[in-house]
Amino acid sequence: MSASIATADTAGTLAAPRIGNTAAWLVVAALTALGCRAIVDLRINIATFVDSGRNAVDFAGRMLPLDFPPAAELLELAAQTLAIVVSATVLSVVISAPLAILAAANTAPAPGARYGARTVIVVVRAIPDVVMAIVFMRIFGLGAMTGVLAMGLHSVGMVGKLYADAIEQIDEGPRSAIRATGAGWGQQLISGVLPQVLPAFVATALHRLDINLRISVLLGFVGVNGLGFAIATAFKQLDYRRGMALAAVVLVLCILVELLSGTIRRALLRDTGEKAGAPLRTGDRISPPWTRRRLCRTGYAALTALVVLMSAWGADLDPVHFVSSLRGVGRNAGLFWPPDTAGMFGQLLGDLWLTVKIALGATVIGAVLALPVGCLAAHNVAPNPLVGKAFRMFVVLIRGIPELVLAVVFVVITGLGAVAGTLALSVGAIGLLGKLIADSLEEIDPGPEQAIRATGAGRWQVFFTGTLPQAAPSFVGHLLYQLDVNIRSATLLGVVGAGGIGFDLLSGAQILEFGLVTTILIMVFATVLVVEALALWLRHQLS
């Protein structure tokens, strides 16, 4: 009797919260409080928007009507930009694929190789691409080569990590069967691993292509050719009609690339899912037959190879110039070492803290803006399919606007300083954070929602008790990822006067104080690593 009562009492008692989980939520609350405090310190309030209203009207008058360049010039700029972006993405894939094999736990030949590859991925991800562009500009000069190398190497940080994650998630059955036949390590990779991860590899490359297209605008401000350089030139000349017209072209290109990549990703997933368990009838053939599906795949592969070759030609990549420029690597690398503060270490610390405050404030404001947008973009939360599709398209539209263009607009409206950078990142967060929130809501278990709905609960009751609690841990991870992105972006937006340590970075490069550039790089690198470590710990505690 007493045993049954004790069991009942135990069963009816809620488990005590874990210390780590409680500490994680306290850290999240502290970060939120810091973000709110940053908004107050940066003086972002209603008065700021009221005071900037007249400037916004004046800017609209100077921006409209848009002044597009001649069609031939516009097509040349767009083609050059796409060629650089495609070449950079291909470079990142070529480097990331073998690096991911070494970084994945199930394919790494030795623990040392795995840790070394993981370290390389983290390091290149933490170094801002504009810093890489400044370094490569000293080695290779102005031109497409600088942009391809800067974007390509920085992309390895994201592409390599996602490739390694995809390899670690494969089904080990096919690989084990191939190993049982006596196949070597390389044969196992080609026959047992590559076919499983190829769709994920292609999808990741397409996603990175979309990101690099927006990054190309930023690199234009440090001399990389294409639409970004034309936009930078127009803004420096205060020709807002031409600059915003070119920015509109970038927006259209970003939307088209995102829609195209989304279509290809869905086709890949559908293709891998169809007839997965159906036997292949080959008769007496040893090689697979030329079915319609195989012909399509071969055609896609040939088309991809053609696009890559045309991009390398369109970007005017010169292997001879690349090899000859490598002779000056040692001499130019010496310019960046040792690090030097130029007698302004206190100012650098203050500007770094300002950059962190910009990122924190933008993350809080962006979360407030993105949460309702992301919820309404999720098909299981939107009141009807039309609303869901409309908000999905709105998210795509916002994602297509480069943050640097937003920063220039807000600099003109609110003036130079941190307010412009914070507002630009806040608006940009709607695109990334809104998409992540919508995806998380659509991936939850529908069981609790159906159970609560069966009790007669309304739409809002189902959302707050059945939907939101399941997605909350994912939301925290997304917010930390957005904070990580915002810290790097806030550094870069300083290039156009949007506050923070980015202005010191550009100034150091312009006056050839490369030791100062190295010091700023180390400071930003350390900050990004701290945020990534904190995000990793929080995700572990909340999972």
TrEMBL record:
The keyword Transmembrane applies. InterPro entries: MetI-like, MetI-like_sf, PhnE/PtxC. It comes from the Bacteria. GO terms for cellular component: plasma membrane. Keywords: Cell membrane, Membrane, Transmembrane, Transmembrane helix, Transport. It is a multi-pass membrane protein. Signal peptide: none annotated. Residues 78-261, 352-535 form the ABC transmembrane type-1 domain. The keyword rRNA-binding does not apply. Pfam families: BPD_transp_1. It is found in: Cell membrane. CDD domains: TM_PBP2. GO terms for molecular function: ABC-type phosphonate transporter activity. The chain crosses the membrane at residues 82-105, 130-153, 215-235, 241-260, 295-315, 358-383, 404-433, 514-538. Belongs to the binding-protein-dependent transport system permease family. This is Phosphonate ABC transporter permease.
